[in-house]
């Protein structure tokens, strides 16, 4: 398109005249600045450039960062990454060259953005999120985004979402709410990691994490205070019991005392909660990640202790009995991935007991087909949404709608490999999900999410609604 064609298409001569007249009417002291700002608002925003680079995530492993430019600014986003990936989730593209970042570099994904995605998106309206995401999906042509890489597609999708919000001159969470048709923003209950185990820590604890939910607070700000205070009381409790070395932290900030028993960990957390005085206001959650220690049809709770591995095998029914006992003895309100990702029989039975929230993470991997099956079979009652498992903002919105239509809870989740990008905070508020899991109230990449929620609550003012006791609704 020639310059003259562009001027004619966007009626720029008329817009400039309108801007000059507006400056005269306003009697502005700086007409040039006034006219410039007036024109910025008058000219529709389009994507002018998409530039990607390789950065490091919180584990020191490469990931993708994108700068998406419009004629109204630069919008940056990055893709998180998990410790493990499954066959049902979108595929992040890595180079596989062992001599560079041990095979984890993402130069191919970066190249795909700079040479393919950028060309396809330049000139598009950033407010048209679904169209932008569909262009990338069509360009990739695979079901699991393995051609361009889910890490490439997601980073661009998030950056475009931020640009769309800027074009509409609204907050990011408001733009997301508009995209999803959600009318009422909601501050989620934070699900804080306190003790880490499984693949996230070097101790002998088989399960992935012990967490708390401050459901009894009245605001998100108060919930964050409760989580922080409990975390620091737990540090003191662990120091008294195991010494200062027990206060090392895992990948998402949870403490890693050298415990092998889940009950030992729950006792530590229960003691810390008792010291805060918030006993009735805090619930406990456990993330089991049972797939990590499932061997055939048995579960090896000593899989991290070589000299004991194989001596503590449990059947699916044994695991159900264990969970029932734990829920009776502790204020456990939520269990994530209590069984292997293919153990549909036992998770369905356990969920049907109605003892607690049963969260499907590895079971469904944010995959629409797996979610549909879980809904039909009533295999769980809450979705753990990890945006990199699905790959675009539009698809994330769609699966949240599926979960809500089934009266499920929704937990927006971090990954073990995080960046300082706080997008999931706005996503949680915009989609009015009841819970957000962003790790411990510690480490910058985790606190970036919680601190952004503080800002959103402040911005909403009297309109801010904290989920609190209605976290299961």
Automatic annotation (TrEMBL):
Mg(2+) binds at residues 302, 336. Residues 184-473 form the Enolase C-terminal TIM barrel domain. Its cofactor is Mg(2+). The active site is at residues 252, 386. Keywords: Glycolysis, Lyase, Magnesium, Metal-binding. It comes from the Eukaryota. The keyword Magnesium applies. Residues 47-176 form the Enolase N-terminal domain. One of its GO terms (molecular function) is phosphopyruvate hydratase activity. GO terms for biological process: glycolytic process. Signal peptide: none annotated. It holds the Pfam family Enolase_N. Pathway: Carbohydrate degradation; glycolysis; pyruvate from D-glyceraldehyde 3-phosphate: step 4/5. Mg(2+) is required for catalysis and for stabilizing the dimer. The keyword Metal-binding applies. InterPro entries: Enolase, Enolase-like_C_sf, Enolase-like_N, Enolase_C, Enolase_CS, Enolase_N. Gene3D superfamilies: Enolase-like C-terminal domain (3.20.20.120), Enolase-like, N-terminal domain (3.30.390.10). Belongs to the enolase family. This is phosphopyruvate hydratase.
């Amino acid at each position: 398109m020639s310059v003259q064609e562009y001027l004619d298409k966007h009626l720029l001569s008329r817009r400039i005249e309108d801007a000059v007249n507006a400056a005269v009417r306003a009697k502005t002291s700086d007409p040039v600045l006034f006219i410039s700002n007036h024109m910025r608002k008058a000219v529709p925003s389009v994507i002018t450039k998409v530039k990607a680079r390789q950065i490091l995530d919180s584990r020191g492993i490469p990931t993708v960062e994108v700068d998406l430019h419009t004629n109204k600014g630069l919008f940056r986003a990055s893709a998180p990454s998990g410790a493990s990936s499954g066959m049902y989730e979108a595929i992040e593209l890595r180079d596989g060259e062992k001599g560079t970042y041990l095979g984890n570099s993402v130069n191919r994904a970066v190249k795909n953005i700079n040479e393919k995605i950028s060309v396809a998106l330049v000139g598009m309206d950033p407010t048209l999120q679904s169209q932008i995401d569909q262009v990338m999906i069509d360009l990739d042509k695979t079901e699991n985004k393995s051609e361009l890489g889910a890490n490439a597609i997601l980073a661009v999708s998030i950056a475009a979402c931020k640009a769309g919000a800027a074009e509409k001159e609204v907050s990011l969470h408001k733009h997301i709410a508009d995209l999803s048709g959600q009318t009422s923003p909601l501050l989620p209950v934070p699900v804080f990691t306190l003790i880490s185990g499984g693949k996230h820590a070097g101790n002998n604890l088989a399960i992935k994490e012990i967490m708390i939910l401050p459901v009894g607070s009245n605001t998100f700000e108060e919930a964050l205070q409760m989580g922080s205070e409990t975390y620091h009381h737990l540090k003191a409790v662990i120091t008294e019991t195991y010494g200062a070395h027990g206060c090392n932290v895992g990948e998402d900030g949870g403490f890693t005392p050298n415990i092998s028993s889940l009950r030992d960990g729950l006792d530590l957390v229960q003691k810390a909660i008792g010291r805060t005085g918030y006993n009735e206001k805090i619930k406990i959650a456990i993330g089991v990640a049972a797939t990590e220690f499932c061997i055939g049809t048995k579960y090896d709770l000593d899989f991290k202790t070589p000299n004991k591995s194989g001596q503590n095998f449990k059947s699916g029914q044994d695991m159900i009995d264990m969970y029932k006992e734990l829920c009776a003895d502790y204020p456990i309100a939520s269990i994530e991935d209590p069984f292997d990702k293919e153990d549909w029989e036992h998770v369905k039975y356990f969920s049907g007991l109605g003892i607690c929230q049963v969260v499907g993470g590895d079971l469904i991997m944010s995959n629409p087909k797996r979610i549909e099956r879980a809904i039909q079979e009533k295999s769980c009652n809450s979705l753990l949404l990890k945006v990199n498992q699905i790959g675009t903002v539009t698809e994330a919105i769609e699966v949240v709608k599926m979960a809500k239509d089934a009266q499920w809870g929704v937990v927006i989740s971090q990954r073990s490999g995080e960046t300082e990008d706080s997008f999931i905070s706005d996503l949680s508020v915009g989609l009015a999900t009841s819970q957000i899991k962003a790790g411990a109230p510690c480490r910058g990449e985790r606190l970036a999410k919680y601190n952004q929620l503080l800002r959103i609550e402040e911005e909403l003012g009297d309109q801010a609604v904290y989920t609190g006791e209605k976290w299961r609704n």
